[in-house]
């Protein structure tokens, strides 16, 4: 991702904490495109990042800043994958790290957090409960809290996904729709920021149409879908959040206003997919493409299909779905 360092928050000569994140493959899947019903269809496989999810990008950026600012330690609440990324980049930077995760987080993810040497605290409840514990710990310890959208740098790392889509489309065109599995919102917010920046900076052809940003949520935890349907610019917390796509189990997203604004500005949409449909689409994606689909990526595929069926895009639309993590993190 450091190919874009000129537009990332680092000073010349400053140390970049890097593990080889970014420039993940954009894989075209013609046979899935037929079954989804759009035009051309691609999956951007973020599971191939270090630490096996897109979270590597944001935490790479945040830990690079934390190192430059000589912070004594870092902590984060996580639905899982951000915890692995924090642990790994903190290890690379040799900064102490503490992670708060729900007890129900898939065991391979918890194992990875421990393997990278972070202190792991298991919390009863969901990521919101982990967030409260993290805030208290940050206050008591002086460790810096790098929770989603509480600091500015994670989104800066995330925006490189938007630049990459433009680069992988040859800087000449963009997909008609991007489907992003969304919990707290930093991936969605980052990609949209990148598109707006590229327009402002003249990186894209004049008057290019920007993609519709379409978010994928689980029916058991869909606060952003509900807010969009209600015409609200804030999401009210989802009661009793449940989904096996653990990255989407974010009942009270802190970035709600930005995500909702992104969907509206881009004429996008939001869909909630039930657990059986997420499971079926995850298996379909993996078994029909060889991409190690995470449940969140499966939710993305099911959302693409729902989006075409709902008439949000034309039947010939070019669609990119993000597989945000790796199926391996969810098998045990
Ligand atoms: C694999 C995966 N996909 C999607 C998400 C949701 O991302 P965000 O919170 O940036 O919306 C997460 C969050 O943990 C995740 O781990």
Main CATH class of the largest domain: Alpha Beta
N→C terminal distance: 31 Å
Mean pLDDT, to the nearest integer, reads: 97
Main β-sheet description: 6 strands, mixed
How would you describe this structure to a colleague?
The protein has 332 residues and is of the alpha/beta class. It is 41% helix and 14% strand. It contains twelve helices and ten strands. The protein has a six-stranded mixed beta sheet with strand order 1-2-10-7-8-9, sandwiched between helices. It has a four-stranded parallel beta sheet with strand order 5-4-3-6, with helices on both faces. The longest helix is centred in the middle third of the chain and has 16 residues. The chain is globular, with a radius of gyration of 18 Å. The model has no long low-confidence stretch (mean pLDDT 97). Bound molecules: pyridoxal-5'-phosphate. Pyridoxal-5'-phosphate binds next to helix 3 and helix 8. The site of pyridoxal-5'-phosphate has 20 residues, from helix 3 and helix 8.
Question: Keyphrases for this structure?
Answer:
Rossmann fold; 332 residues; alpha/beta; four-stranded parallel beta sheet; binds pyridoxal-5'-phosphate; 12 helices; 41% helix; six-stranded mixed beta sheet
In short:
This protein is an alpha/beta fold and 332 residues long. It contains 12 helices and 10 strands.
List the helices and strands and how they pair.
Layout: E1 26-28, H1 30-36, E2 41-45, H2 55-68, E3 74-77, H3 81-93, E4 97-102, H4 107-115, E5 119-123, H5 127-141, E6 144-145, H6 153-158, H7 160-168, E7 177-181, H8 186-201, E8 212-218, H9 223-229, H10 256-265, E9 269-273, H11 275-289, H12 295-309, E10 319-323
Parallel strand pairs: 2-10, 3-4, 3-6, 4-5, 7-8, 7-10, 8-9
Antiparallel strand pairs: 1-2
Helix pairs in contact: 2-3, 3-4, 7-8, 11-12
The structure holds pyridoxal-5'-phosphate.
């Amino acid at each position: 991702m450091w190919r874009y360092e000129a537009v990332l928050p680092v000073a010349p000569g400053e140390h970049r904490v890097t593990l080889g994140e970014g420039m993940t493959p954009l894989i075209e899947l013609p046979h899935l495109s037929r079954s989804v019903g759009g035009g051309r269809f691609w999956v951007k496989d973020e599971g191939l990042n270090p630490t096996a999810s897109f979270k590597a990008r944001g935490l790479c950026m945040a830990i690079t800043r934390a190192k430059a600012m000589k912070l004594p330690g870092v902590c984060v609440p996580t639905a899982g994958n951000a915890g692995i990324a924090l642990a790994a980049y903190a290890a690379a930077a040799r900064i102490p790290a503490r992670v708060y995760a729900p007890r129900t987080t898939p065991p391979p993810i918890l194992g990875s957090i421990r393997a990278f040497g972070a202190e792991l605290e298991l919390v009863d409840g969901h990521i919101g409960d982990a967030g409260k514990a993290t805030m208290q710990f940050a206050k008591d310890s002086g460790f810096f809290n790098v929770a989603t959208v509480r600091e500015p740098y994670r989104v800066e790392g995330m925006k490189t996904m938007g630049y990459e889509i433009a680069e992988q489309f040859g800087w000449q065109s963009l997909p008609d729709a991007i489907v992003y599995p969304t919990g707290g919102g930093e991936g969605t917010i980052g990609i949209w920021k990148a598109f707006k920046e590229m327009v402002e900076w003249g990186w894209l052809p004049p008057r290019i149409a920007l993609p519709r940003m379409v978010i994928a949520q689980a029916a058991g935890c869909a606060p952003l879908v509900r807010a969009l349907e209600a015409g609200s610019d804030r999401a009210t917390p989802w009661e009793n959040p449940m989904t096996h796509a653990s990255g989407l189990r974010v009942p009270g997203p802190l970035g709600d206003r930005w995500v909702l604004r992104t969907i509206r500005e881009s004429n996008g949409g939001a869909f909630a997919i039930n657990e059986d449909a997420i499971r079926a689409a995850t298996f379909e994606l993996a078994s029909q493409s060889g991409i190690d689909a995470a449940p969140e990526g499966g939710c993305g595929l099911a959302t693409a299909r729902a989006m075409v069926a709902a008439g949000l895009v034309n039947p010939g639309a070019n669609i990119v779905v993000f597989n945000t993590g790796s199926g391996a993190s969810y098998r045990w």
